[in-house]
Amino acid sequence: MYFESIQQLIVMDGHGVYVWSAFSITIVVMLGLIFKPLCQVKQEFKNIQLHVRLQQVNAAAMQQKDSDAPHS
Amino acid sequence: MNLNLQWTWFHRLGSPRWFYQKTQRWLPWLCLIMLSLLVVGLVWGLAFAPPDAKQGNSFRIIYLHVPASVVALAGYYLMAISGAVGLIWRIKLSYMLMRSAAPIGAALTFIALVTGAIWGKPTWGAYWVWDARITSMLILLFLYLGVMALRHAYSSNEAADKASAILGLVGMVNVPIIYKSVDWWQTLHQPATIKFTGAPSMHPDMFMPLVVMIVGFYTFYAVTLILFTRIEILRREYRASWVKQLVENNSAEK
Fold it and tell me: How high is the pLDDT of residue A1?
């Protein structure tokens, strides 16, 4: 390691505040980019499941209606 | 017949189902490569590389600033070309890639601007300067945001895709301006560290971690683009039988 101690690595001769704040912002944005779609996947799966169920309920209702209708 | 065979791969490449299934297998490997490169590059650059003779340790911001800028610019080409492919061949997947590339590109441009501003304070004495490179990067951010905003401006996906693709293509003129801005104008921003022709203006001890970080950021871009595109596929293809099957299998597994 270039620095002699962790303390020196953090302070970086007075430039630590710039380097570490740039580092923190970058990491937060990058983690956000990874986790946003990962959270959305669950929501999308739920939406699609709901859509499939609605379709099934509608289809069943239509079938029921057809069988209830008087035959001419 | 032969012509048909030649085009089969092209159409398969454009199939959302093919993309979704293939990337399922690629993702773990890509994540592993991405994590290794980013960890090695960051530790090497922040703790092991020697400081710059003039800028001191603040120069270490280069390991975040340059990779983010390089990938934000390359990502713009990818977004614009995907839009063009969508316009010409009407391939669904290319529009999905274009849509997904916009927020990632915007975030990377944001990182480039913020880290640049933070680096500017100890180096130039100011966070922000209306310099040619910085201003053209800010325009890049607005172009990315414009492509994102157009999605909500239209009620139909098709119209929004076309408008975004055209905006993306028009905005492409800005990318070479960004690249050449440091040569064309007398700017405060330093000239390019890495050149396509000629040796880099850095010592190998400083340059190698930068290369690792750039490759790491490209892998990160690939991972996030795949993740965002998979969401876009689910959103647009929810009526497809393979998506319904996928969701059913997923809920059965739970």
Answer: 80
Spell out, as residue ranges, where chain B has pLDDT lower than 50.
1
Handedness of CA B224, B210, B82, B31 (dihedral sign): negative
Asked if A51's CB is within 8 angstroms of B220's CB, the reply is no
What's the CA gap between B208 and B202, in Å, rounded?
A: 9
Q: Which of B73, B107, B127, B20 is nearest to A32 (CA)?
A: B107
What's the confidence (pLDDT) of residue B213?
A: 97
Which position has the token pair 């980013």?
Answer: B38
- Predicted complex ipTM: 0.90
* Chain A residues inside the 8 Å CB shell of B220: 30, 33
The domain limits of chain A are: 6-65
Contact A45, B234 (CB under 8 A): yes
Chain A residues inside the 8 Å CB shell of B49: 2
Q: At what angle do helices B62-89 and B92-124 cross, to 10 degrees?
A: 160
CB B213 within 8 A of CB B42: yes
Output the pLDDT for position B195. 67
Q: What is the pLDDT of residue A71?
A: 61
A18 → closest Cβ in B51, B61, B110: B61
B47 vs A9, A47, A48: nearest CB: A9
Q: Which residues of A touch B37 (CB under 8 A)?
A: none
Distances in whole angstroms, Cα of residue A47 to Cα of each of B69, B93, B156, B157, B231? 36, 21, 20, 18, 12
Among B50, B103, B224, beta carbon nearest to A34: B224
